[in-house]
């Protein structure tokens, strides 16, 4: 299994869930921009599950040498890459902040996804799981830079799913709502609408095994976002969301 964004609590919880369920991987490739933290996780799954893992440094803000990845073969790709950025008004008009949000969540991520998707296509098997966000379902004033990048990523996964369908490769889009993670620490999240990484991992694993196309981590979010998507624009633009 290939894991992009392997410092993510959700990614690590999914790896553990899959191993607990008896999934067998010759090796798990943990891509990360934080090697030290990821190496601790690699040691953890080695001790707990006797699972071999390799930590690979990947910084999406820098130029990538894809030749380093030629030897990697896998049947599952799990992408939990995400960067919320600074959502305040100051952050909105900070172009470095904007560029980083777009780069990490979409523009620099998609070429990496495509590189491995091509391998899956050539092998004519496998599953690609991408974590997008409910923020991509409609632009809201509170996080529309992040939301626009996630909307683009959702569209990318949809197109990739369509393209790879007859190549026998399954693409699963996951749309988490509020998540209790380091990225959202300190935000005033409604506990009834917030999932833990373990809850998310269980939902994602279930969707993976059922070969779903799109899944919300908490079912209530599908209802919430259906309502939000259908609010007429002349009303929606006046709302504080």
TrEMBL record:
The chain crosses the membrane at residues 214-231. One of its GO terms (molecular function) is oxidoreductase activity. InterPro entries: NAD(P)-bd_dom_sf, SDR_fam. It comes from the Bacteria. Pfam families: adh_short. Keywords: Membrane, NADP, Oxidoreductase, Transmembrane, Transmembrane helix. Belongs to the short-chain dehydrogenases/reductases (SDR) family. This is SDR family NAD(P)-dependent oxidoreductase. It comes from Chryseobacterium panacisoli. The lineage of its organism: Bacteria, Pseudomonadati, Bacteroidota, Flavobacteriia, Flavobacteriales.
